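Below is a filled-in request sheet from our internal design queue. Each sheet records the structural input a requester submitted and the sequence that came back. We keep these sheets so that new team members can see what a complete request looks like end to end.

REQUESTER: design group, bay 2
PRIORITY: normal
MODE: inverse folding
CHAIN LENGTH: 308
BACKBONE (tokenized):
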């Protein structure tokens, strides 16, 4: 019998659900039995640090470095990621080989019917610079309090009164069965790659890449690539409030983006339509945004990045 394919994942409830989604898609695509795939759960540094925003202690790499090490050392065959948590620039030995169909990209507000319905000076729990800036752009009176942890932890903290409301991704809530929780905020651009699950492999592993090709959702993959390419052109960090969403419209991609100051007082928006697979267009949109932006906004972004 062939050795089972080993899927590396974080050990959080949501990450495990997402790993199982990938396993089920592979089994369905190839007619495999349950013995053909093993899920290898591990605790990342990002899971261990719960008392500070990740932007203060190392950023998105804290979600991926343990998974990367296992993959590069041959202890796993692939890693499953929430794509919004993956650094823009990845080691050249690794490649995102498949992206599952995208879920709802919106955030949901938990604790009030709308952002406008929040009481004056309400405490909204989030550690996301994007969500913080977008909330303050609409409601500068709000008090933003840092809340971290998985979905269950954040809901529990809300119930315990640590905040009056919070924002959570619809995709994560739905995948965990919390379809009834919160109010969808449909007029707020999401984080780049929000709602997308990606599968990363060693670039030279042609056999595993071939397996994954069967479950790759091309429209989602090309949109996520465009959003991540925009981030590459902006040179933002996890402290940089940026939102973006690419959608397929006919034969084109429609990419919308906004940059904000951390206090939400300044917002720069732009959009572009271009052919799918045009890797230069998102970089051009990044240049347009940075050229239009005020010095305060530009200071949060460093321009085009290279892997080092």
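RETURNED SEQUENCE:
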């Amino acid at each position: 019998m062939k050795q089972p394919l080993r899927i590396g994942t974080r050990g959080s409830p949501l990450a495990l659900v997402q790993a199982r989604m990938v396993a089920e898609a592979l089994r369905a695509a190839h007619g495999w039995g349950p013995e053909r795939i093993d899920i290898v759960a591990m605790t990342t540094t990002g899971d261990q640090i719960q008392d500070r925003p990740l932007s203060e202690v190392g950023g998105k790499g804290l979600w991926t470095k343990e998974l990367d090490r296992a993959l590069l050392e041959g202890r796993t065959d692939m890693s499953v990621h929430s794509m919004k948590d993956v650094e823009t620039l990845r080691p050249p030995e690794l490649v995102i080989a498949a992206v599952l169909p995208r879920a709802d990209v919106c955030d949901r507000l938990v604790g009030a019917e709308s952002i406008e319905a929040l009481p004056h000076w309400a405490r909204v729990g989030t550690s996301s610079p994007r969500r913080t800036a977008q909330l303050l752009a609409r409601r500068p009176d709000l008090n933003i309090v840092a809340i971290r942890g998985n979905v269950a932890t954040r809901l529990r903290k809300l119930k315990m009164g640590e905040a009056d409301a919070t924002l959570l991704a619809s995709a994560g809530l739905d995948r965990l069965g919390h379809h009834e929780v919160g109010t969808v905020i449909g007029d707020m651009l999401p984080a780049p790659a929000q709602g997308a699950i990606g599968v990363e492999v060693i670039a030279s592993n042609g056999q595993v890449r071939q397996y994954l090709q069967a479950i790759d959702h091309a429209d989602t993959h090309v949109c996520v690539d465009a959003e991540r390419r925009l981030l590459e052109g902006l040179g933002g960090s996890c402290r940089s409030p940026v939102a973006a969403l690419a959608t397929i419209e006919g034969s084109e991609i429609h990419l919308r983006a906004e940059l904000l100051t951390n206090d939400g007082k300044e917002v720069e928006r732009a959009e572009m339509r271009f052919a799918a697979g045009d890797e230069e267009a998102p970089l051009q949109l990044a240049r347009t945004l940075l050229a239009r932006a005020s010095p305060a906004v530009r200071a949060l972004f460093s321009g085009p990045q290279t892997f080092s």
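SHEET NOTES:
- The two ends are 40 Å apart (CA to CA).
- The mean pLDDT is 91.
FILED BY: M.R.
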